# Entry
Amino acid sequence: MSERAEYVVSAMLEEGIISQENLDDCAAYVQEHNVPLAEALVASKVVTRRQIAITMAEISECQYIDLDAYEINIRNSQLLAQSAAEQLRAFPLFHLGESIAVGMIDPLDLTAVDQLRRLLKAEVEPVLCEQQVLHDLIDRAYSLSAGSEEQQAECGQGSESLVTG
# Structure
């Protein structure tokens, strides 16, 4: 289990969201299905993905945004090439004056935040989002704005290569 996942599970245990019995019950599921403990807890309906994301945000001291509670402007997909959104697992959510709130699966990934800052040419406020909900938003946004990546390429935007670390 990753160090971050251990912190999330420990915090949920400490807060009483899960019990040691829940962990013991999920251990067999982890072995049988070869999945992370957090995934086993969700599959066993002990916790929701939202509870895991909120706990992760609390531990990371970053904001959590429930994407289902907001009307996200799909046109924000024009700010970031689809390949970058998929690779960085991020999507520009809101313009906040001179900065852009960017939904991310891992807002503590400083390399990704720096790349987003460079690609968006703005200050970035990373916020944590549930992985599946953010993935669905990225898929929906770029399928509804088909051709935006080609338009960006024609305009010379979003053509910088990404550096992965």
Residues 26 and 32 are 10 Å apart (CA to CA).
